[in-house]
Predict the structure of histidine kinase.
Amino acid sequence: MINLQTLSLFDDMTPHGYCLLWDPVLIWSHVLADVGIAAAYLSIPAALAIIARRRPDLNPNGILYFFAAFIILCAITHLFGLVTLWVPAYSAEAVSKVMTAIVSVATAVLVWQMLSTILTVPTHAALREANEKLARANAELESRVEARTRQLRCANERLEVVASDAREAERVKTQFLARVSHELRTPLNAVLGFTDLLDLQISGPVNDTQKDYLDSIRTASNQLLQQINDILDLERLIQHGPSFTPEPVAVDRTIADICQMLSTTARDMGIDLLTQVQSASSLCTDERALRMVLTNLMSNAIKYSRRGGTVEVIARAVDDGVEIAIRDQGVGIPADKLADVFEPFFRGHEHDLPSIGGTGLGLTLVKQLVDALGGNIVLDSTLGQGTTVQLTLPEMAPYPQTAA
């Protein structure tokens, strides 16, 4: 038998095999066990290294590398156990054990430090339960979305029915207004025509009292005819939108024409109609719409003015347009009603001044037309002192404007 003691680096020491009396069974039992353990220990770090590279989230603070080093050193100690059966390399074995101890302690400290973090990691059962809850929540959400979609679909269908009914009602209303306007205008025109004939005294003389009656009939008929026209104009504007083409308009001439037209009414009421208009003021707008706006505003100013008062019309050129102010010294409008002046059928003095006629549609029509012309209208009034309407129109109205 070869004397393996000659291979020892240490004197006066014997290999571990002497302690086992070189019993083959014991020797080979240790050999096979140490080889198997070392082989297993050396394969585990390889698996840990693969995990650490592919799943960095499972390697916080490099703990898998600490485990790998610890296991490799354990494998080395087992290999030294195998070697020392024949070679008394106990010092080298001691060094490997010291290194194993250092790495083992460091690994243990790191494990204890990370214990709380590791314990907070959900278990597979907890993750499975969370996934099941999430799946149930998703299913419930999908169910709610489907239910909500069905509700919205039903609501949309109901809205379509309502919209269809509204369109049909609007069509019927338009037909009704057209028919009513025709039926009302025909007798009104007859009334006005016969009133003029009676006033001409073709069928005989008419005394002063009868003339007053004829004037009252004519005035009331004209007011009713104007109210019908206002209703139809507003209905047409709302239903079809504005339909006009801008053209050059001299503001001073337009205001002068309207003042001339209203001069008789103003004179009969004892109202002074004053104008301050820059001759250079001009616009590219729809003259008919502008005349309707100014006529309505100036008529209102005269109608609600006190006898002996003044209605003033001021027009001046501003940046990119014209500013027109119509100021009266009339009864004014209560502050709590100013917000409603442009609403259809609103009349601020319907109860306290019932003698002043009107439909309450004039300012509504004015607002619609001013908006269509691209302008702005502001009304300021003080009860008992008068009203000022500030109208601003652009130099060029939106073009083209066509019926909807």
